[in-house]
Write a structure and sequence with these properties.
Radius of gyration: 16 Å
Shape: globular
Oligomer: single chain
Strand content: 35-45%
Number of strands: 7
Order of helices and strands: HEEHEEHHEEE
Strand order of the largest sheet: 1-3-4-6-5
Distance between the termini: 11 Å
Amino acid sequence: VLRIMEPSLAYANIFIDLHSDESLYIYGYETEFEQVLLSLLNSSKQHLAYSGVEDGKIVIQISNKMIHEHHYAQVTIEDNGFGLLTDDLEKIFRPTIEHEERNHKLVALYMAKEIVENHINGTIDVCNYQNIVEDELITGTRYTLTLPVTEKEDKDRLPL
């Protein structure tokens, strides 16, 4: 997915920073999961373009989380745009579109949520965030995917 997005992101002066704790495996169809990642990365790219940030950055963190004695892969995708309006946060995964110019993005995010929740049995959330990095306040949008992890031996697994 990053190979597909890299030229577009580089042209828009957006840097990708990828961190992963370990190799994790999830159930699902590879093309569907790729579509989820493409939708979220495109959304972050659009947030950065809209915010006017000159040196855009998207941080992808993949980690192993234990929740109620079950292992999950947690994938966070953060951009350093200025975050979303509260109204947009509440509507971002809905199937109905109110603003024609954002039609494509919102439909893609609705489909990403459907894939994650109904095909992978995971969750997807979005929020605005603030971090202080080297005495500088960084704000942006964060997408969080929480996906059940499988054992390596399972035949229908996807590597993260």
